[in-house]
Design goal:
The chain is α/β, with parallel strands linked by helices. The chain is built from ten helices and nine strands. The longest helix has 16 residues, at 51-66.
Amino acid sequence: MGGSEVRSLAVLTGAGISAESGIATFRGMGGLWEKVPIEEVATPWGFARDPRRVWEFYDARRRQAAGCSPNAGHRALARLEEALGPERFTLVTQNVDGLHRLAGSRNLLEIHGSLWRVRCTRCGEEREDRRVPLPDLPPPCPACGAMLRPAVVWFGEVLPEEVFGRAVAAAEASALFLVVGTSAQVEPAASLARIAAGHGAALWEVNPEETPLTPLCDRSWRSEAGAVLETVAAEALSFLGG
Ligand code: OAD
């Protein structure tokens, strides 16, 4: 039964939590996937066909994210982690923009990777790279000279096993699972909420729109994250017993 000894919280966030920081979401009107074809920029075969095109897309996203700051929603989750302690709080994010870490979140699982990490296509070495813009596209591996790729998960790829395993464990152990700003259309991320509910967790959602998870939710806030997450965090603390 979820959280029988220590009542813990797991949170799943998506692009919606960064919308108020000025980062476009993926789906819906004005979404990123309306403007650029997923196939070309976010698949392994798109990268194999035209690595420079893919790197130009990611370099542009890095430039945009570098100019954005965490908003009230990110900060409310960081404060909630402080109040609960990292052993009772896990933040699982689908976002690659790095804003949760900038806001101070520590027990953070970036299940779709990070814009700020690169991985060598030959030697596999992964490292942080915060240069904006990158001087050469595609960038070469400093260790072996082969081409680097963004250390993000593309369509058609599996999620990093260790990180996703920890996300599943946090979902299974949670007494409360909070979903913020995701359309819940991408698997296996969305199934974390179903796993948590299946293990007895209460399910809460913050999203201005309904999602496929809404019918499963015990509580829903039809609002923007920045406007309500402070209140939701206070309610979560009292639900979990401080
Ligand atoms: P989507 O663009 O699919 O969904 C964004 C969600 O945020 C929608 O449900 C909006 O209603 C909601 N939203 C918009 N503004 C909001 C706000 N201010 N506060 C709260 N919610 C708001 O983004 P994701 O669900 O994150 O994957 O997409 C999942 C994955 O699909 C991404 O990680 C990315 C994408 O393709 C990869 O690139 C692998």
